[in-house]
Amino acid sequence: MAESIEHTETNHLAAKAFAFTSALWFAFATSFGMIAAGYLIAPDFLGNIEYIQFGRARPIHVNLVLFGFVTPGLLAAALYYTPRLLGTHLYSQQLGVVTAVLWNIMLVISVISLAMGFSQGREYAELPWAVDIMIAVLFVMIIINLFMTVRQRQEQILYVSIWYTCAALVLTAVGYCLGNVIWKPDSGALLGIPDAILLWFYGHNIFGLLLTPLALGVAYYVLPLATRSPLYSHTLSLIGFWSLIVVYTHVGTHHLLQVPVPTWLKVISIVDSVAMVIPVMVFLINIWYTVRGKLGDIHANIGAKFVFTGTIMYFFANFQGSFMALPQVQRITHFNNWVVGHAHIGVFAFAGITALGGLYFVLPKITKKPLYSRYLADLQYWLILIGVSVMAVDLTIVGLIQGNAWYNGETIYRVLPEIHLYYVIRASAGLFILAGAYLGLYNIVRTLFFNPGAAKE
Ligand code: HEM
Ligand code: HEM
Predict the structure, then answer these.
(1) C-alpha 434: how far from its chain's center?
(2) What is the CA radius of gyration of the chain?
(3) Atom of ligand 2 nearest to the CA of 69
């Protein structure tokens, strides 16, 4: 059954378009990351070109990694595996391609707006109103495509990857509109403390209810297949899913522990941040038991190798996250590079590396050819793994220096020379990631469009 569907599927155009989108914007996003890192080493770096000053390059970098690289990468895999798992075709390849084209137009408009200084100034919600509307419409287009695919399914049982994908899309479509206050086009904000609460409800959900479930869906698809092992427990997979939905929706206020928000909200966010250990460990136990004794298979499959690494990073991001949601810890770690380190472990080392794994796993299937170069993919793996690990350790050390200085009442100008070297190390680690991103772009473009490899039957 599955094989005949594979042969009649119209070239997986939608998945290909999203795969290309992800690889392309990964390269742009890291380039802007390098520019931002350069400014932190030398504030007069690149002179006074207003369009790429730190205040503009930073939101461009962050929005591009989120909406240009990681989300499209994870969606490319979902557009492939959703119909496969349901024994049917994607509802509409054309709709998928149109969505990808509009998605790229949205990204171009986003970069131009932010570079010109049009920003709503709220983190992860900087994009102007017109772009917010585009993003909401794009999510609705993907939802229609995937939900109609679910509707026309032959397979009645919904595997956990489908649960995660569908939930991520619906919750984000709603959460994005709320968090961006789209009913107030001019400001995109409420007033005062309620705005901070709403922003961070949305802010953490963009990681917790978009990137995390999409990435877990990819892991649940790729790892059992690559190791030819049945999932250890379907019951655990559903416990993990529902506990994630229940717990992760309430953690946003852990970003505001130093802010005069109501205490009961802080307490809920702290308790639920610690309770995140339940969905996280349930997922990890389930997936690690599934691949137990099969590390050889994982090593042999480059997609699975990335995804498995992503699961390890998921452990670190969440362990660190629960820890830094404790007020005593956050007294030191808030407002400094510790948080930036955590952000790179979570968004890049977990979600981004999982997205790359999903891409490398599905590319041979959607192009019906082997990857253009397994060697380049391996090289990219090591470049980004070394890059992000060095960056995370480096930023954690800077965070501790800054946090202690602040705690002890030290003035900023005396701390800056102390951390300068660490900024140079961060930028150097960034060069590894940058090289990995451009290598990946080359490899993926060759695999998609100019691959001399023999076609797989
Ligand atoms: C157990 C799960 C997690 C918990 C409890 C947690 C907790 C936290 C806390 C407390 C902060 C704010 C720190 C501060 O401002 O002082 C934070 C920031 C952040 N987290 Fe997590 N985290 C978790 C997992 C993740 C994951 C999986 C990702 C990525 C997919 C992620 C991405 C981020 C990002 C990007 C920030 C920075 C937000 C900013 O710009 O201020 N976190 N996290
Ligand atoms: C060349 C590699 C990279 C470099 C040099 C770099 C550099 C930076 C810099 C300088 C910032 C601003 C930090 C600050 O305001 O103090 C930043 C923020 C951020 N970057 Fe990167 N980055 C790179 C790659 C990535 C990748 C690949 C991802 C995700 C897939 C990512 C996700 C983020 C996020 C989520 C933030 C916001 C952090 C926060 O607000 O706490 N970065 N990055």
Answers:
(1) 17
(2) 21
(3) 30
Confidence at 48, pLDDT banded by 50, 70, 90: confident
Q: Apex CA 87: angle with CA 23 and CA 235, to 5°?
A: 85
pTM tops 0.90, yes or no: yes
What local confidence, expressed as pLDDT, does residue 6 receive? 53
pLDDT, average across residues 63-81:
98
203: Cβ below 6 Å to ligand 2? no
What's the rounded Cα separation, in Å, for the pair 212 and 346?
9
As given in the structure block, the two tokens for residue 2 are 């599955």
How many residues does the structure list for the chain? 457
**Is the CB–ligand 2 distance for residue 334 below 6 Å?**
no
Locate 77 and state its tokens.
């895999």
pLDDT tens for 166-189 read 999 999 999 999 999 999 999 999
Closest ligand 1 atom to Cα of 207: 30
* pLDDT for position 11: 82
Tell me which residue has its CA closest to atom 38 in ligand 1: 343
Per-residue DSSP letter, 207: I
